[in-house]
Design brief:
alpha+beta, Rossmann fold, Serine Threonine Protein Phosphatase 5, Tetratricopeptide repeat, 47% helix
């Protein structure tokens, strides 16, 4: 009964995903993906991205990638948990021991594609090899040893020193594993080299940790799933067809912000140039010609959902619109979808924003976001330098008064001359320092004034990306 429920859940999950991805891409057909950018944990962002994708799909003049397809660079959408996979493997093993062979084979075959979607880590690798070993035992029993050998080969290609526990597995299974190992000597091998800008990044192949960058290993020819980075923050999954010596340069730092389960969503700041750089990295992995970038923004006291159509080949935003969010429900997004795709909107609902201004709100362009901080730092420096200059002025006056007090009727005793000379020298030094500090305070004041002045210019308060529009009305 346990096996029945396990395999039913696995097959249902696989069927649901297949239905979602059932429209294959035609040759030369344009494709479009809808992806969120920003703080991915923000509650409305993932939900809004999915809702906008549903509105875009029926009206776009391009094939719109499903959520599952869009999540593929991150390893695909998880359909079952690690624990569900573990229970299914155990159910298949139990069925085999009870000679329910057909059901055992069906269960274990259903598990295989789900393992590749599990998070990177020891539990995934344990599921990878144990499913294949138990399925190989079933196939051995059915007399299909060549197929069992293929399953063992999938393990040994990655972990060449893999071995089986003598207590848990019978001699026949261990002998089949060793026979497969002996066959590997005659298989073609090629060198896989992986580098990263920051060395020391973990390298996982089919979920198994093989080393760290810079990585180099001679491996049996075949297809491998390569992941570079930490288990919970890594680069895109790369399918490597190893048929020749292959060199890959991977940048986990740039790709690790992709969250497959949240829309999907790319962790990003408010800067438009940062989004375009992330889109340039993501689009080739998706095979997308256009991307609709979805994000949240706050303008004054109100929250908005913005959607920008990005033309990947030219690396530019074609247009952008936004709608006001009225919690707790999302507004109708059909008009936003139509505007992002075509630039059309109902009269009174679309407001063109001056291309020379930014979107008003809590964020500025990446080149000028430092203006407030610079202004306050320079203002603080003005106060400090000015205060010290005043102190040195008072100090110089005091030293000069002390020196003049040593004069008796305009005459100076030879006993007081050394002290008189010292006081005069200290006073001169204090005046010189005062003058320098005053100049520095003046320069800081000018800099602070310029910084605050630039913040008040219209171009800095309201400049938005070119060809940007705002859908200002609520729905």
């Amino acid at each position: 009964m346990l096996a029945y429920f396990c395999v039913t859940a696995l097959l249902t999950a696989a069927a649901g995903s297949a239905k979602q991805d059932e429209s294959p891409r035609e040759p030369n057909e344009r494709s479009l993906a809808v992806v969120a950018f920003g703080r991915c944990e923000q509650a409305p962002l993932g939900e809004a991205t999915r809702a906008l994708r549903r509105e875009v799909t029926p009206v776009a003049n391009a094939r719109v990638l499903s959520e599952a397809e869009t999540a593929e660079p991150g390893g695909g959408l998880p359909r079952v948990s690690v624990e569900e996979v573990r229970r299914a493997i155990e159910a298949g093993r139990t069925d085999f021991l009870n000679l329910n062979i057909a059901h055992a084979e069906k269960t274990l075959w259903a598990v295989l594609p789900e393992i590749d979607r599990l998070p990177i880590g020891p539990e995934r690798w344990n599921a990878y090899w144990s499913t294949r070993v138990h399925l190989a035992r079933v196939l051995e029993y059915l007399g299909r040893k060549p197929k069992a050998t293929e399953l063992f080969l999938e393990i040994l290609k990655v972990q060449e020193d893999f071995s089986l526990n003598r207590i848990e597995f019978p001699p026949s299974t261990r002998e089949q594993l060793e026979l497969t190992r002996s066959l590997m000597a005659g298989l073609p091998r090629y060198k896989l080299t992986v580098t990263s800008r920051k060395p020391g990044q973990p390298v996982f192949v089919n979920g198994f940790p093989l080393g760290k960058t810079p990585f180099e290993k001679s491996m049996v020819s075949g297809t491998y799933a390569l992941v570079v980075g930490e288990p919970h923050r890594h680069a895109f999954v790369r399918q490597v067809l190893l048929q020749a010596d292959t060199v890959l340069e991977v940048e986990p730092e740039r790709e690790a912000g992709f969250r497959r389960e949240l829309g999907p969503c790319f962790e990003a700041g408010p800067d438009r140039e940062e989004r375009l750089a992330l889109i340039a990295a993501l689009a080739p992995a998706l095979g997308a010609d256009e991307i609709i970038a979805v994000r949240l923004e706050r303008l004054g006291a109100e929250d908005y959902l913005a959607a920008a159509l990005v033309e990947v080949r030219r690396g530019r935003e074609v247009r952008e619109g936004r709608v006001r969010l009225e919690q707790p429900t999302l507004p109708r997004l059909a008009d936003l979808a139509r505007f992002a795709l075509t630039g059309e909107g109902e009269p009174g609902r679309v407001e063109l924003v001056d291309p020379s201004s930014y979107s008003q709100g809590d964020h500025r362009s990446g080149s000028n976001h430092w203006l407030p901080a610079a202004g306050w730092i320079l203002a603080g420096a003005t106060a400090v330098l000015g205060g010290v200059a005043v102190y040195e002025h008072w100090r110089a006056s005091g030293l000069q008064a002390d020196a003049e007090a040593l004069l008796k009727n305009g005459a100076l005793s030879h006993l007081d001359k050394p002290e008189y000379d010292r006081l005069r020298a200290d006073a001169a030094s204090a005046r010189g320092l005062r003058n320098k500090l005053a100049i520095g305070a003046g320069a800081s004041a000018v800099g602070a004034g310029v910084s605050f002045g630039l913040m008040l210019l219209p171009g800095e308060r309201g400049r938005a990306p070119s060809l940007t529009a705002a859908v200002a009305s609520s729905f």
